[in-house]
Structures are given as C-alpha cells and as structure tokens.
Amino acid sequence: MSSITGPKQFQIPRIFPRPMAHSGLWYWLATVDHKKIGTMYGIVSFFWFIMGGIEALLIRVQLSHAEASIISPEVYNQLFTMHGTTMVFLVVMPLSAAFFNWLVPLQIGARDVAFPRLNALSLWVFIFGSILMNISWFTGEAPNGGWFGYPPNSTVQFNPGNGMTYWVLGLNVLGVASIAAGLNFIVTIINMRAPGMSLMKMPVFTWMTFITSILIVLALPVLGVAGIQMTADRVYGTNFFNSEAGGDPIFWQHIFWLFGHPEVYILILPAMGIVSEVLPTFARKPLFGYTFIVFSGAIIGFMGWFVWSHHMFTVGLGPAANTAFTVSTMLIAIPTGVKIFNWIATLWGGSIRFTTAMLFSIGFIAMFTIGGLSGVTHAVSPSDAQQQDTYYVVAHFHYVLFGGAIFAIFSGIYFWWPKFTGWFLNERIGVVNFILMIVGFNLQFAPMHWVGLDGMPRRIYTYAENMGWELSNAAATAGGFLIALSVLVFLANVYLSSRKKVMAGGDPWDGRTLEWSISSPPPHYNFVEIPEVEHIDHWWYKKYPGLLEGSPKNNSEPSVEVEDTTNVDESKIHLPDLSYYPLFIGIGLSIAALGVLYSYALVTIGLILVFWGSIGWSTEPVNEPHEGDH
Amino acid sequence: MLSKRIKLIFNLSIVMVLSILLMACNPEGPQSTFDAQGPVSEIQKNLFLFTFWIAVIVFIVVEGAILFVTFRYRRKNDELPVQTHGNLKLEITWTIIPAIIIVIIAIPTVIGIWQTQVMPDEEDSLVINAVGHQWWFEFNYPSEEVVTANELHLPEDTNVIVNIESQDVLHSFWIPKIAGKVDMVPNHENQLWIKADNPGLYYGQCAEFCGVAHAMMRFRVIVHTNEDYQNWLEYMRTPPQDLVSGSDEDEGRKLFVGNCSMCHTYDSYKKAAYHKEINSQYNRWEEWKKDKENSAIVSAPNLTHFGNRITLGAGLKENNYDNLVKWIEDPDTIKIGTRMKNHAAIYTTENKLSDLEIQQIAKYLLSLKPSDDSMATYIKE
Fold first, then answer.
1. Chain A contact for B356 (CB, 8 A cutoff)
2. Which one of A90, A409, A606, B200 counts the least CB within 10 Å of its CB?
3. What confidence tens digit (pLDDT) does each residue in A408-444 have?
4. Do B181 and A341 touch (CB under 8 A)?
5. Does A478 touch chain B if contact means CB atoms closer than 8 Å?
6. Which helix (H) or strand (E) is B318 found in, with range?
7. Which of B59, B106, B176 lies at the smallest CB-CB distance from A370?
8. B218 three-class SS
9. B162 to each of A452, B31, B152, how far by Cα in Å?
10. Which residues contact A255 (CB under 8 A, 6 or more apart)?
11. What DSSP letter does each residue of A303-347 carry, written as one string?
12. CB of B3 within 8 Å of any CB in chain A?
C-alpha cells in the first residue's frame, strides 16, 4: 500500500490537527485500524448484551409467578421491545461485526479492510445510533411497540409519544452503519485477498462474512424504506400504515419480514462461520465438506429471501400463499441439515480437545439442532396457527439465536481472545462459564416449548393462576439467573485472566488459517509480508507439509514457527493515517435524527457536522506526508 | 481431568433433561393445544405430533452422534488424526435424507392447510362476526341478530365461520382447544372455520400484541348442545326481569341509563336492536377517533344480559358483586388501560358517584337477565 502524496489538493480547514499518535483517547477516537475498530465494536456491543440481559431478567422476574405486579405493564412492554431490539441490532449484529473486523483482514492476508475510514464510520454510527435509541429510557419513553413495531399499535394514532419514533429513527441510523459495513466487507473480501487465495480457498468464517455482508447490503435498505415510511407516518402525518386513514398494516409486515427473515441469517451465518473454524482446529482435521458448507451457507442466504411470510401464517394470506411459504420454509431445513451433518463429520475420527471454545461450539451444534427442529414444526403452517405468538416461538428463536448465535460468539471469544490480546482466558473458569450457560439456557428456554403449546401467548405481562403455566415460568426465571451468573463468570474470567496473564504466543491452538501465522496480538500492519496462499488452511499445511502427501504419520510436529516481528523495519509498511471525520459524521447523524424528534435546530447542527465531516473526509489524503518518505 | 469434566457435563445434562421433562405439557391446562376439542385443532395437533415425532428421531440421531463423537474421539495423544476432507456420497446422502423427510412432512401439511383454511359452505354454517377492540372482543350473530361481548356461544358439532376483523389495532382470535389463531386486522376481514365437538367451557385469548392491556384481553367460549344453543338465542331475545320500583336495582338502572348507556348498550334483546347496535358501535368508534383524549363516548362491550356473564373485564375476573363494585369504582385497579375511566364523566371529580350509587349500579348489572334462568345453561367456573 503506498501513500498518496500527489499535488496538494483542496482541504477544508481543520479544527483539530490530524491525530498522529498511536495511543491515547484521541487515537482510539480517530483510529482506522480494523483491529481497534473490532475491539470497540466488541466492547460496546457486549455492554448492550449486558443491558439486554438485564431487560430480559426484569421480564423473567415479572413472569416468575402468576398475577405478579413487580413491573408495570407499560414498563414491561418497553422491556420486551428493547430486549428484542437490543439483542438483534445492538448485540448479535455488532458482535458479529467485531469478529468481521478483527478477523477478515487477518484471514485473507490483508493489512486492513478496503475502506478503513468507512469502517470507522460504521463503528461510530453504530455507537451513536445505539445511544440514540437508548436515550429514550431517560426521557421515560422507551419504545413499547415490540421489536417488530407492528402498526397500527406503533402508529402515532395508537402510540403517541416519542417511544416508537426513537425506535424507528434508531433503526434507520443503525441501518446506515450496517450497510456501510456490509459494503466494506464485500469489497474487502473480493479485492483484498492475498495472492493465491481464490474464493474456494477462503476460510469459512470469511465466506460466511461475505454472504452475510451481501445479505446486509440487500436487506437493510428494505428496513430503511419501512423505517422512513414509519418515521414519516409518525412525524409528518403520512398514512402508509395508518389504518384509520385506510393505510395498510399488513404492508408493514411484508416489508418488515422481507428484511426480517434475511436478518435471521445475518444473525446466524457468522455464528456458523465461527463454529466452522473452531471445530476443525480442536479436532485437528480439516472441515468436512468445505464446499458443501460454503454452498449451503450461500443457499441459505439466497432462500432466506423466499420465506418471509412464514412470520405471517396467521395474518390471513390464504391457503395458497401459506402453502408456498410452508414449502419454501421447509426447503431451508435441507442446507441447514447439511451443515450440521458436516460439522459432526468434522469431529468424526478427529482428535478432539475440549477447550472452552470447543465446548461452546459443540453446544452450538446441539442447541441449534433443537432450534432447527422446532423451526420445522413452525413451517407446518396449520399447527403453526397454534404456535404463532406463543412461547413456543420464543423458545424456538432463542434456541437459534442464543443457543446458536450467542453460543458461537462465546466460542469465538474464547477461541480468538489470545489472538486479540496475546493472553489466554482461563480455561477452568471457561468450563464453568460454559456449564452454567448451557444449563441455565436450557432451564430457561426448554420449558417455553410446552408452556407455549399449553397456550401461553407472548408479550403478556401477566397470566392467571389456573392456566398451568407457573412451574415452567418459575423454572425459566431460574434459568435466566443462571445465564446471568454465567455472564458474570465470564466477566470475572476476563478480569482474573488479565490480572495474571498466561501469554499465548502467535499460534496457541495449533490453528489453521492465516491469523495464526502472525504474532498475538498482531502488529498493527498485520503481516510483514503478504503471504502467498496455496491451499485452504494455508497455515496448517505450511506447518504440516507432509499432510499434503496424505499421511498424518510422523507429521505431528509443526515445521514452521510464527514469525518473530520484533525487528521488522516498519518504515516500508504504509497504513492509512487516522481520521476524526468518521466520528463527526457518526455524531452528526444521530444528532440530526434526534432533531427529527425535538427541533430543527438540532437537525441543522447534525447535518452541518455530517456535511463538514463528509467534505473533510473526501478531501483529506489517506496519508499525510511522513517523515522519511520517499 | 478431562473425562471427569465430561462426566460432569453428562450427569448435569441428564438431571436437566429429567427435571425439564417433569414440567412437560399438561393437556388439562385451559388453553392447552394438546386437548383438541374440534376438527381444526385436531388436525393441527396431529400434524404437530407427526412432525414432532419425526423431529424426535432426528434429534436422537443428531444429538446421539454429537455425544458419540465427543466421547469416542477425545484427544488421546499428539498424533494427527486421518485428514478427511469430505465424501461426495455422504454429502448426497445427507442432502437427500432431509429432502425425503421434508417431503414426508410437507404432504400432510399442505393437505392440512387446505383442510383447515378453506371455509365450509356458508349456507350450512353458522356465521359469526368477531371484532377485536382494545381490549375486549365483540361477538355478533348476524343471522340471529344477537350481540354479545367477551363470551362466545356456539352450538356443538356445527360448522361455524367466524368473520374476523378489528376496529383499532391488530389482535388475534384464538381458542386453543378449538382452533389455531387468526389475526384480527383493521381494514382486512379474515375468516376462520371452527367446529366444537363437545359442549363445555373453553378459554380464548388475544395472541397478537395489542398494547398495554394485551395480557388482559381474554374471552370465554361456551359450547352448547344444539338444544341449549337454541335456548340461549331465545334467552338473548327475552327482556330482563322486571325491577321493583325504588329498589337498589331500579335506582342503579337510572344511574346506568344516565351515565353509562351512551357507550354500553344493555337492551339488544329488543327486536331490530341488532343493526342499531352495530351502527352505534361504529359511531362510538368514529366519535372517539375524532378526539381520542376528550371524546365523551368510546366503543364498549354490549352488556345485554350481563347478569349471566361468567366473567368481567374480558375474561379477567369472576363476575360477582364484589368484583363488579371494585370494577366500577376504579377499573384500572383490575385492568389497566380501560377507556371507560378516561371517557366516562363519572370519573371526574365533580361527577363522582357515591359508594351507594356504585353499589346500586352493580346490583342493577347483576340483575340484567331474564327471570327464567333455566333458559341459559352455563357451566359455571
């Protein structure tokens, strides 16, 4: 990467000098390093994970017994709305983005993503968007219309006040962050792979990132349109969804789920990618059926567009539509099943080491399978008429999104933590973390299956005593607290491990992909020299070249070591300089959105920030002339 | 060390599975879908169980395989295992097997969709209109010209087509033991076919999030023998018992007519009252829409023969004197969000009712039923 130092071009006057330091607050605010951005994504979204978890616990406390009155119905509705919204948009998506950021450049042998400043923009827009949405708690008007925001209940006619406007504006802002990130990773993966790394030699995690990014770029604009329409309805009095003026509430459901179902795969495909990296590493075998896993992911991503109305089986679309969406939904079970079988086959005949990361990944397969199977029972649309909007659905998608996505994310955290930081998380505490989580998880969500089939609807803040739901609900609440405990154990693990660091080295797990071929944490330029890739799992075969001839015998000692980078001459490596403009655009966008609620002055201030940031950004060179440059 | 851990995990999971299974489904629950009492819920239940048992087999195979590999292939030494990359035959096999399973499930499913969602012939069916309101259910019998609320009366073993709509936000009409739910959508009429096999009392509940009192939007279904059903219709057309002038009930009647009857119709037993009530309900809605804060009227449940209702507050509380007094005093203590308190003048400080007046109204409401009680056979809770 060479610096651009052409003729001096126009630059708008700077208010602050361009930061050049490589540490300190200013550095973190202006960084364009994908690893730092990934870290910030991770920390911020883990914070929201804790917030969303507290919201869930409050819900569980209120439901712990019949006729409870611990939490008022108004607050209860806010809690479940924000729990869902938080976990989808502020936790699983950005936690996945944390992994994309950290890993994709490392896995494809690149120094950074294609558009480092755009990457920083995604981060800041996400952070301020998430704050924007949650400011509503402090004004006492948190969103209360469900994470799906179905009109007319979310229209200003039936839901006056600012709550749902915060929600929809927040979603629109977050959508900007997601779309920008999606584009960035598509371009990065297409253009920045190391020489020799053809698409079918890419690590599976990078593949899943690629498919997810395509889904993001296609699906989030759909939500964007719906969001703008709803904002217009709520703020400017249009009638897209206002049933009182003849608007069509079902219209919203179609666009929301046309986004919402691909969104499900946006949430789960990265998790599948993580698991596909962890399993081979700790089984010391290549991923079984790489091609099939990759294509299954692509097929799932594609077919995910044809199933949205299975969220609407009871809306009254008629038997023909329900038949079509029943069949298309069932078909998705096939590629999903193929993935599960291939993961098990990866373990088959392996030499399995039960690290915490591995336990979480195996837990993922076990739990995700249950979620997949209950998903098939949902696809059976006649019986879904009994399940729709009951706790059976709640059980199903928590098995997919918690037992699936969150388990995989924890697996990924334990797996790549030594790469991110250079030291290990404690494995013993990790096992406790895992056991508490899987026990708590099943105790919380398994009973929801039958309490749903016994007729308990979702989103009710209370229930009568004689319904036969009490024992299951009490168990679920207990399970919720076990999960909370497991998260505390995780945080304790981070704290204790950081106090007494056990250093990891570059390749602590005998890894397979390029990120393990460099030191931990990676130097800011990642690779001293961009590697030439010849195989899938390039690093693995570099270590065990004998395996290419087929025989694993006498090949058990790695033949190369992670490169020592202590004496690298960094002056030959050029990385883009810091930029504070993404931060300003991020702040500006959220201020402008907040202004839609409160005052045009704020909109103006926000837009000025956005324009100033955009012009500043587009006119600033990637690099300032460095000392010692040619 | 490692095997200890695995044993611990294994033991824990067995304890967990057993304790969880202890709580499993109880068909006795009033809304349990496992106790199907009509052909629609029966089809739905059987399809679920069919899929469920197939899923159980897949579950045992997959989870069994996971357990097997985790025990069998634990790392024993530093040797690298045989490096397999894939197997085309296996891939084809485990693509085809799920495909076959899907076909096996899809065929009865598609048949089930058309069985449950194609309406029976309207001429041989009873047609009922169910209208969702925040947060109660209106039930109209257009051919019988009967109106009621929160209690649906059905004849046994008869095809019923329920026309389902909503006046305000989305709701969902659901009687778990009789049929799966269908959403109530404004500007969009849906239909649901139901048929109840056996007389009895059933529970229904709104299943689509509809705002602050969503949890408290419930209803009851009373399935009668055909003879009893005819009696009930006759009953709904019979005037209520006469009141002794000057009695508490009669004083309550005056108070009710003066303060409550703008929104709560109480005399739909009369001839030709049906269409009037449909229109009134519509007008109340239109009036409320114009000024949601200050409107003097709002859609409200029809109270004809309220004295014979099982519950008050849309399936919330037993309909008895004490509950009713509490309800009239301050409905919010029983059910949040009731519009009554926002719109009825009696809740303003200047027009506040005295305790005695509230008691009189309660007594009147409980007297609202024909003197010949035998015509309405109810299964009391």
1. no
2. B200
3. 999 999 999 999 999 999 999 999 999 999 999 999 9
4. no
5. no
6. strand B317-318
7. B59
8. strand
9. 24, 19, 11
10. A222, A223, A225, A226
11. HGGG-GGGGGTTS---HHHHHHHHHHHHHHHHHHHHHHHHHHHHH
12. no
pLDDT band at residue B336 using 50, 70 and 90 as cut-offs: very high
Q: Are B80 and A284 in contact (CB under 8 A)?
A: yes
Rounded-to-integer distance, Cα A415 and Cα A216, Å: 25
Note the pLDDT tens digit of each residue in B170-220.
999 999 999 999 999 999 999 999 999 999 999 999 999 999 999 999 999
Q: Give me the mean pLDDT over the B296-316 stretch.
A: 93
Question: What six digits make up the tokens of A615?
Answer: 């012009």
Which residues of chain A neighbour B44 with C-beta distances below 8 Å?
Answer: 382-383, 385-386
| Domain spans in chain A, listed from the N-terminal domain onward | 30-548, 577-589+600-625
Per-residue pLDDT reduced to its tens digit, A178-196:
999 999 999 999 999 999 9
pLDDT in tens, B354-366: 999 999 999 999 9
Out of B8, B26, B117, the one facing A454 most closely (by C-beta) is: B26
Q: Does A366 touch chain B (CB under 8 A)?
A: yes
Its ipTM equals: 0.94
**pLDDT tens digit string along B157-171?**
999 999 999 999 999
Question: Which among A250, A289, A352 is the nearest to B70, CB-wise?
Answer: A352
| β partners of residue A352 | B74
Cβ pair A155, A233 in contact under 8 A: yes
The answer to whether the bond into A152 is cis (omega within 30° of 0) is yes
Please state, in angstroms and rounded to a whole number, the distance separating the CA atoms of residues A136 and A168: 12
Looking at the DSSP bridge assignments, the partners of residue A423 are A503
Stretches in chain A below the pLDDT threshold 50: 1-3, 628-630
d(CA B276, CA B265): 10
What is the identity of the amino acid at A176?
V
For the entire predicted model, the pTM comes to: 0.94
Can you point out the beta strands (E) in A193-248? none
Write out the CATH class of domain A30-548. Answer: mainly alpha
Burial of A457 (0-12, 13-18, 19+ CB in 10 A): buried
Query: Measured between alpha carbons, how far is A134 from A85 in angstroms, rounded to an integer?
Result: 10
Tokens of B295: 């409107």
Helix A204-231, helix A290-303: angle, nearest 10: 10
Helix (H) / strand (E) element for B317: namely strand B317-318
CA dihedral sign, ordered B179, B185, B186, B191 = negative
pLDDT higher at A607 or B12:
A607
Could you say which of A248, A286, A385 has the minimum Cβ distance to residue B181? A385
* Token digits of residue B362: 């309660």
* DSSP three-state, residue A379: helix
User: In this complex, do B215 and A463 lie within 8 Å of one another by their Cβ atoms?
Assistant: yes
Nearest-5° Cα angle at B358, B356 to B363:
95
Structure tokens at A229: 């329409």
Residue A289 has what DSSP assignment? T
- Helix locations, A72-160, DSSP H: 73-85, 93-108, 116-138
**Beta carbons within 10 angstroms of residue B22's beta carbon:** 10
3 state DSSP class of A6: coil
SS3 A252: helix
Nearest Cα residue in chain B from A431: B5
Q: Read off the pLDDT band of B343 (50, 70, 90).
A: confident
Residue A569's pLDDT is 77
CA distance B120 to chain A (A): 14
Distance CA B320, CA B305 (A): 14
DSSP string across A436-456? HHHHHHHHHHHHHHHHHHTT-
Q: Does B30 touch chain A (CB under 8 A)?
A: yes
At A20 the three-state DSSP class reads: coil
Ranges assigned E (strand) in B134-239: 136-141, 146-149, 151-155, 160-166, 171-175, 179-184, 190-194, 200-205, 218-224
